[in-house]
Amino acid sequence: MVHLPLPYTVGRQSHDGSGPAAKRSYPPSIAPNGANGSAPSLGVTSQTMPGAATQPRASLDVRIEAAVGSAAKARMLWREGFTPLEMENSRMDEREVRRQEVIFELVHTEADYVKDLRIMVDVLQRPMHELRLASAEQIDLVFGNIGEILELHEEINTALMERQRMQYPVVWDISDVLLPFVPRLRVYARYICNQDNALRLVDELRQTSNNFDVFWKERQLRPECRKLPIESFLVLPFQRLLKYPLLLRTLLASTAEHMPQHASARMVADQIDAWIKKIQDARTKLDSFACLDALSRALPSVDWAPLLRGEHRLAHSGAVRVAQCGASGALSPDEQATMWLFDAFLVVARTATP
Predict the structure, then answer these.
(1) Which of these, 36, 62, 86, 191, has the minimum number of CB atoms within 10 Å of its CB?
(2) Helix (H) or strand (E) segment spanning residue 96
(3) Is the peptide bond before 169 cis (omega within 30 degrees of 0)?
(4) What is the pTM of this model?
């Protein structure tokens, strides 16, 4: 059992090792809106020395430092910071416990994410520049604007930790903390639109540069990288961006509709969803244009100018087998071909043979 790192006492034993023992006091129940419109309480009473200023409750660091370097991250649930007796005496219903666990998960996975972003910058990107393992342009293509993303999430992490520090163990709301940062999620557009090109370049560099490949494998074995393929770090930003709406929707399901936190969580979730859609639309447009551009160079006999001036979207591409032959010189029946299905036209071309 991991006990709360708070200056409070239970029974005869003081949890901070100082001061006489004191009895715990618990509220008779925890109302959805708190006893008087404030955050609900788990019944933890702070103990301070006479004349000393009241200190805000400390946050709970759930990462067990001794586990750093293992393949799995140490993780605990919010409720695991309390004894069964404390949970029973709090009379907190299961829905509120679940709400606290979602808030707890969002706060601490944000801290984990910031640590991983720092690994990308300090363990991967910066050493690659210093060792000149690739050109500056290639390294910038691999990591994009990861520095901007790190800067944003360091601010988000600081704000979330401060909220937890001030309200722990029961955090009343975090939606209002996240809301001012939502418009700044636009920094993800450049990184995500560039991600496929970045992963292709990494694969190319690993095949063509022995030094780059050795560096990539050595970094993967470092404790802080947890033996994860380095490519896993490159896709983390998009994965984290998609995680926010999922966590907020789970938070909504655990929050009564009459609570003000429900409306604020819905607002933040909807706004993040809108930004994700904008970024995904931008990525789709970029991918579609890149595909059209590649086709125009591969099939110069076709007049591509009208299509390149538009905003056509690629819906699907892949290998096909021709069932019927068309005009003279076209594909033969049962011949392997590649298809590109756009929103307004279809391209089928003979698959190149090595």
Answers:
(1) 36
(2) helix 94-119
(3) yes
(4) 0.67
